[in-house]
Design the sequence.
């Protein structure tokens, strides 16, 4: 029964009390998974990413510096490894070719051999990224390329197979109209598919696009949204815009070709902690400090598709809620995989859509 | 038709109405091209064509008349129905069905999924390890700093003084234009557990910021209806130094729990029942009413209460994680009027 439930979860959410919740949107239920059976605040989930082998494994980075492997098929935590070094919580977790990449708050980025049997205490590679890291993100197209950024820590793109120096180091924008230095606080980074560009959102409510291929190290595009720090960002399936969320719970879709605001999404009451778009459908899952998981429709019409309460006790500081949906092979072919974001497979998608429509605009 | 104008002074309203009714009927008849025998309509029964409503009458006076007549009729019917119901109840006596409960906004409240189930273990775990855990485990006892916004006027100063008599172990300090972010580290180093800032606008206190100190949440309230001690009628003598009891009413949702715990952690954990004083935080429809009373039991079931102390009403505007940092702090809950106040029956606390 646990395996059944585990497989049919559409969205995975990590919480501050260490519980991993799988939410089934069709049945509107959430299932809790804990490593030790009891929630523990020391195991607060700070990073989530998919493990090797499709979407069958989740790597959960906890506050006590352990990375736990969770199998979605079986619904149990399979193993864990301790990743010491540096101070602070995990700010980024990634998986590449059998290796595990972790980055902590104090700027130590380590690559570990991801062997269950041989949990060697020494990392394969260690880089110092600079203190105050807020996010480390892996390029989905090139698994050995990662980008890091943080508070007073400019955006840097590293090639783990290359040299110890960053491949691209961003430069700060020019001084503002009072000739004061503009502070840097990169809160979230996304790689744009199909090109080398990166988008970042900052704590000073700016959204910036960088292009390492151009000779310009400064951002190619910069826009502002709101007055509060932007905490989370995700790319939309259309590929031309990003959705950002700030500490007041305001979500906005921003087109990064022109820097225009396309529209806002409402519903959240607390700071946005995690955003994830479905890879192909215009759906967005958002979670925040108000303890509610919401699924939004991004266009036609823009609105709230679904709201899940059961995160009762837990705030959700985890960065990623991942939308994983399984095709039941009724119609189309094999499981469609998209780079970067999680899979698209969906059971009886259109039917469910129509069923949901009439009642879906619930507040 | 035209005659009604002439007759208005002379005959009573009834004939006027009758004429109006007849006029209506005739006009309607003409409009529908029905062959009628003019003058042979029964004067009393005005048969209107179906789908006709009073609001379609263009003449204001006649329309008003029709409406008042309709209203009087409705009232009569309602009174008759009530009397009938009452007679039936008396006739049935004991077997009468129970009286139906009147609908109020409170009992029509929409089902809120965030209402905490008392057996929920996740919530219980969360509460046992949150920032107030050390208070509820009796490890720390509260020490409060009360201050105001800069340059407070008389009412605010007096409110602060009265609050400091209500809340034990509290100290009032003059603000002196200092920044809150600079005050907070100093408070933490001097072992304060909570900071209360009363904001003032145009000589009246209108806001309250309550910040739990080591790194706890900060709540920002709108304060209204402030009554100082001398403005309270039939009040008792000033409160004594005894530690009061606390009553927290109706904080049912998860957000309500957090706010309720914040209020509870202001007062020491050991109430002195000898003092017979009680502070009440009553939440109703998202407004929190603060009262301070002294009670005395006259018998097993009868209590007398005297209101002491200041009274005010609070409404939560935002709850922020961490100590006061309105620009860069992360908010756990922000009140958004256009999104959250759309339904009269939905409340958040």
Sequence:
């Amino acid at each position: 029964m646990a395996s059944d439930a585990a497989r049919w979860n559409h969205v995975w959410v990590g919480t501050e009390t260490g519980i991993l919740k799988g939410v089934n949107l069709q049945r509107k239920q959430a299932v809790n998974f804990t490593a030790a059976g009891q929630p523990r605040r020391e195991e607060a989930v700070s990073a989530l990413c998919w493990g090797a082998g499709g979407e069958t494994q989740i790597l959960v980075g906890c506050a006590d510096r352990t990375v736990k492997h969770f199998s979605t098929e079986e619904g149990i935590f399979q193993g864990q490894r301790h990743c010491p070094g540096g101070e602070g919580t995990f700010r980024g977790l990634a998986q590449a070719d059998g290796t595990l990449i972790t980055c902590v708050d104090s700027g130590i980025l380590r690559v570990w051999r991801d062997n269950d049997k041989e949990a060697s205490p020494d990392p394969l590679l260690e880089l110092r990224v600079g203190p105050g890291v807020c996010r480390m993100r892996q390029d989905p197209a090139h698994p050995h390329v990662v980008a890091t950024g943080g508070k007073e820590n400019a955006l840097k793109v590293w090639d783990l197979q290359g040299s110890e120096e960053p491949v691209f180091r961003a430069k700060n924008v020019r001084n503002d109209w009072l000739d004061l230095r503009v502070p840097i606080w990169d809160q979230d980074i996304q790689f744009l598919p199909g090109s080398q560009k990166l988008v970042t959102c900052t704590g000073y409510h700016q959204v910036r696009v960088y292009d390492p291929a151009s000779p310009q190290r400064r951002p190619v595009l910069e826009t502002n949204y709101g007055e509060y720090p932007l905490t989370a960002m995700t790319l939309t399936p259309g590929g031309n815009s990003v959705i950002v969320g700030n500490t007041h719970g305001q979500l906005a879709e921003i087109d990064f070709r022109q820097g225009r605001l396309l529209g806002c999404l409402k519903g959240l009451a607390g700071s946005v902690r995690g955003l994830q778009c479905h890879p192909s459908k215009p759906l967005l899952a958002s979670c925040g400090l108000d303890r509610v998981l919401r699924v939004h429709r991004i266009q036609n019409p823009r609105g709230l598709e679904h709201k899940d309460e059961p995160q009762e006790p837990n705030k959700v500081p985890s960065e990623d809620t991942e939308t994983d949906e399984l095709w039941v092979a009724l119609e189309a072919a094999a499981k469609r995989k998209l780079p970067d974001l999680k899979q698209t497979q969906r059971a009886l998608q259109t039917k469910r859509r129509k069923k949901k429509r009439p009642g879906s605009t619930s507040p | 038709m035209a005659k009604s104008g002439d007759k208005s002074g002379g005959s009573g309203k009834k004939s006027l109405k009758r004429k109006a009714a007849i006029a209506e009927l005739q006009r309607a008849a003409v409009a529908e091209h029905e062959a009628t025998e003019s003058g042979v309509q029964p004067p009393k029964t005005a048969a209107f064509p179906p789908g006709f409503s009073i609001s379609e009458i263009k003449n204001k006076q006649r329309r008003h008349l029709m409406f008042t007549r309709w209203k009087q009729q409705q009232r009569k019917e309602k009174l008759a129905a009530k009397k009938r119901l009452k007679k039936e109840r008396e006739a049935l006596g004991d077997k009468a069905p129970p009286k139906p409960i009147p609908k109020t906004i409170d009992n029509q409240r929409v089902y809120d999924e965030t209402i905490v189930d008392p057996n929920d273990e996740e919530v219980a775990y969360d509460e046992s390890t949150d920032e107030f855990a050390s208070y509820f485990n009796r490890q720390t006892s509260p020490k409060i700093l009360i201050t105001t916004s800069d340059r407070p006027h008389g009412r605010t100063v007096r409110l602060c003084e009265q609050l400091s008599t209500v809340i034990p172990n509290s100290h009032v300090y003059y603000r002196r234009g200092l920044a809150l972010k600079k005050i907070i580290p100093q408070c933490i180093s001097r072992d304060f557990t909570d900071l209360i800032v009363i904001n003032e606008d145009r000589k009246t206190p209108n806001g309250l910021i309550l910040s739990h100190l080591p790194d706890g949440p900060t709540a920002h309230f709108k304060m209204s209806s402030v009554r100082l001690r001398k403005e309270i009628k039939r009040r008792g003598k000033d409160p004594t130094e005894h530690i009061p009891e606390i009553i927290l009413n109706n904080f049912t949702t998860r957000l309500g729990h957090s706010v309720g715990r914040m209020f509870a952690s202001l007062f020491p954990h050991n109430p002195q029942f000898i003092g017979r004083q009680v502070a009440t935080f009553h939440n109703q429809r998202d407004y929190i009413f603060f009262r301070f009373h002294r009670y005395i039991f006259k018998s097993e079931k009868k209590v007398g209460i005297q209101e002491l102390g200041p009274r005010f009403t609070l409404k939560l505007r935002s709850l922020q994680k961490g100590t006061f940092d309105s620009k860069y702090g992360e908010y756990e809950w922000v009140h958004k009027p256009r999104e959250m106040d759309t339904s009269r029956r939905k409340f958040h606390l």
Notes: The interface with chain B takes residues 17, 19, 32, 38-39, 41, 203, 227-229, 231, 247-249, 266-267, 269-271, 289-292, 309, 312-315, 363 of chain A (CB under 8 Å). DSSP finds two helices and 28 strands in chain A.
